[in-house]
Amino acid sequence: MAAIAMVAAEPAGDARALGDIGDRAGRLGVEIAGVAGLISDVSAISRQQALQADAAKAAAAEMNAAAAQLGDGMARTRETAADARHVLDDSTTAVSGVVERTGTTMTQLTEGALGIRSTLEDISGTLRGVEKASSAIAQIARETKLLALNASVEAARAGDAGRGFAIIANAVKGLADQIHDFSGQTVTHLAELGVALGDLREQAGANAEAAQQAMQDAELARSATATLSALVESFDRLVADIDALAEPVERSISGFETMQGELSALAEGAATCRQHLDEAEAGTQTILGISEDFMLFLVEAGVETADAPFIALAQSKAQEVAAIFTEAVKRGEITLSDLFDTNYREVPGTNPQQVVTRFTDFTDRVLPAVQEPVLAFDRRIAFCATVDRNGYLPTHNRIYSQPQGDDPVWNAAHCRNRRIFNDRTGLSAGRSTKPFLLQTYRRDMGGGEYVLMKDCSAPIMVNSRHWGGVRVAYRV
């Protein structure tokens, strides 16, 4: 009897051992999923860093080119400034000489103009004296003429005795007439000379003023010459400043070249790291697949695991949905073509993007009655949803089917219906034709928040065609 009891006890011990192996395999899958998620995050960060390194390398190259261009420009500017400095120096010397000679000439001209004006003033005074003398001569001529006339009268009275005196009187009278005529001409000529001297005096005055203005302009020209000299000195300082800046620019060019080399090495390192991470991510996905196949093997072998109730639930719901779809097609409620429609039409103004097909309204009517009760099966269940072969989830649980708002992060967590989840978990759940598929993954809740989940799915067959699958997701 004892031997019999021992033999009977061994299968129970084996069952417990297999159950323990199943539980450990499940936990191993969870750990692998967590590692896969971390590797995926690090890979995404690495890709971003690689992009940033490439961008920094490109920016450094552009800065290096700009610095080199600046250096070339500064060299050309330095040469141009030096040439300009020589030209200005020569021009300043020439201008200074011309201005100096012009100033001396203008000074001489001014002094001459002022001397002419003074001489004209003296001539005017002399002319006035001549006019007075001419008036006096005319007066004497008139008086002499009157005297000769009186002498002629007296000579006539004297008869023959006064004949000689009469001849003298006539001669004196003729001389007085000539003097009177000459005096008149002199007055006329003096008047004309006075007018000409007046005009000449005005012109001389204007010339003197112009000469004085020219002297002032000459002084301004001398000031301008001083300004040119100061400008030459400024160019000297500019050339010196450019020479001083050239050395830092050359150091910057060298530094940019060094930085560009270091950034190139960093970009190459990031690319190598990204390649290794991609390989590691692919490896973890392979291990996850092996873990999922191992769980399928254990369940099919009859091993009872902690996931068994969820597996049975997913299979039951898949059969229920398949029956509803098949019966609806049979009744003509929906055509087989509409049920398998994959023409996903975007819903305008949605973020994240939502889409609809010809079967979306149909699933909105029939699936809630199947999916909603699943949430009460176990408090760990997060959702129950049906997806087609492309990961399209038309009808979600009501708590994840809220109308979208203005916040994309909130929408990502609360508006998950009518969206395509074509990640590894979503596509595998929709395309697997195995009796069930148990996956472990990180669920993106939006806003950088992730939850470690298990996803048990079972296929939906409609008239021997694979439509998709039912997903039952629960927290681990």
Automatic annotation (TrEMBL):
It comes from Devosia albogilva. Residues 24-278 form the Methyl-accepting transducer domain. InterPro entries: MCPsignal_dom (IPR004089). It holds the Pfam family MCPsignal. It comes from the Bacteria. This is Methyl-accepting chemotaxis protein. The keyword DNA damage does not apply. The keyword Transport does not apply. PROSITE patterns: CHEMOTAXIS_TRANSDUC_2. SUPFAM superfamilies: Methyl-accepting chemotaxis protein (MCP) signaling domain. The lineage of its organism: Bacteria, Pseudomonadati, Pseudomonadota, Alphaproteobacteria, Hyphomicrobiales. Keywords: Transducer.
